[in-house]
Amino acid sequence: MAKSTKQQLEPQHNPSINLKGTLIAVMLLGVFILATWFGCYYLFLSR
Amino acid sequence: MHLHKFEKVWLIFGMGSLALFLVILGFAAFWKGTHPQSHIETIDPENVEAHDSFKPENLGLREVADGKYIVNIVASAFNYDFGMDADGKPVKKIRVPKGSTVLFQITSKDVVHGFQVAGTNVNMMVEPGHVSRLETEMKNVGEFTVVCNEYCGIAHHQMFATVEVYE
Ligand SMILES: [Cu+2]
User: Is A47–B2 a contact, with Cβ atoms under 8 angstroms apart?
Assistant: First the structure.
């Protein structure tokens, strides 16, 4: 029983899994959050 | 624990952003002195005149030093009391030179009001029983409308005034 559970989890630990699309999506979101945050902070400092 | 290389990248990116924002927050709070506008200073809302700043003769704009101003205001439904001018008319517009430091002190006689000088960083909640203070440097020239941004009743939209910053 324990052995089959381990086998089921195995693919998630596979280092060759392709996360390129995830990386791009995460970075796009991150850059968007940073850009809007600094945009607001610039407004605060300039007013 | 094994982490994918990309997972490490976005974890470091996320934690780095958090650290950066905390540093900026600390800079704003401890260096630039950005604090809540009400410093838990209480006042009797039924008798605001008992407070020196809100005596009728002390309302409105006053120059306290070169380039330093204090504005005392009493908000009530549906008016901002900036005091009276020389002709005995209520003041609805104040003028300060560009670059001056202005301390706004405001309290409410009745309900919660807002005090926003649109286009500047002056934006406070005005609560009955509390004194709200905000000091700011008027960096930009222009006419800025003061509006109440907390719904206070039927004539809420008639609560406004003007702050003019001249060259
Ligand atoms: Cu209002």
Answer: no
